[in-house]
Amino acid sequence: MKKALVISGGGSKGAFAGGVAQYLMKKEKKKYDLFLGTSTGSLMVSHLALGMLDELKTLYTNVDQKTIFSNNPFKIKKVAGEKVISIRHLNTFWNFLNGRKTFGESKNLRSLIKKKVTRQMYNDIRKNKKDVVVTVSNLTANQIEYKSINDCSYEDFCDWIWGSCNYVPFMSLLEKGNCQYADGGFGSLIPIREAILRGATEIDAIILDTEVTQINRLPSKNPFSLLFNVFDFMLTHVERHNITIGKLAANNKNIQLNLYYTPTVLTTNSLVFDKVLMRKWWKSGYEYAKSKKETLMSEFRPDILTDKEIEEGLDKS
């Protein structure tokens, strides 16, 4: 038996995935041999492989825009109590003036990765014979690549994590080995099939989106918001394709596949990192995983009553 934990991309929504993983690993005592992540998922898998959930929670509930961006292309303001995102023209112009290829720069995130994914963690994961894999999109070769910690040096692995998280053109472009790399989600937002190809016989996949589309986007007001909407449209369909292929592969090989979606829309801009919201999402992820387990228990064990059923029974008596 080889168990895998797979976490999709989703920016700040990764806090929700952390809560789900905490329930599965701490409460359900699940042990995984293989950890695969895309984008924000790639930031989490090293900590999860070592069971460092408290450290991961501290990380995900304390980041903000300055932690991620060395040159932030976003301007956030409140309109009627709601956060509205627009472009910070001066920062974007400065990037172009300096010959850079993106609207913003995420070099602070690269420093954070080196600080939080330490060389000691890298060595411990390899020593424990855990397989930790991150997804990157090779724009030069026009293909998806999966980078295992067991095939990389420490410095290279940190680069691949950073590359997997870089949502270009709003974040930095990773240039390595004469190739340009970007967010793994552009090609494989939830790498379920890759987990199967690597021998997984049971998979828990955390998908940082709702199972059914629950929003209609507002009309674009400028090229910046239009670009966002186009990217979100494409990523939504990449995700659905990944899930469909993953389900077919799992059914074909008789693999147990457990999917954990977000029950509600958490945010429409996952590149905005709000500490308060991310703490809330971590907690809601934990509660969601717990409620899903209780639902499954009541379905398979009709003799087990929920608290609500017990209360209703007492009222009738």
Instruction: Give the oligomeric state of the chains in this entry, treating copies of one chain as homo and distinct chains as hetero.
Output: single chain
Reading the helices and strands in chain order gives EHEHHHEEHHHEEHEEHEHEHH
Largest sheet: 8 strands, mixed
Please compute the radius of gyration using only Cα atoms. 20 Å
Mean pLDDT: 89
Fraction of residues in helix:
40-55%
Distance between the termini: 47 Å
Q: How many individual helices?
A: 12
Principal-axis shape equals: globular
DSSP, total strands: 10
Name the structural class. alpha/beta
* Poorly predicted segments: 300-307
Q: How much β-strand is present in the residues?
A: 15-25%
Give a written overview of the molecule.
This protein is an alpha/beta fold. It has twelve helices and ten strands. The strands form two sheets. Strands 1, 2, 5, 6, 7, 8, 9 and 10 form an eight-stranded mixed sheet that branches. A two-stranded antiparallel sheet has the order 3-4. Helix 1 (14-27) links the parallel strand 1 (3-7) and strand 2. The longest helix has 30 residues, at 223-252. The radius of gyration is 20 Å and the shape is globular. The model is unreliable at 300-307 (pLDDT under 50).
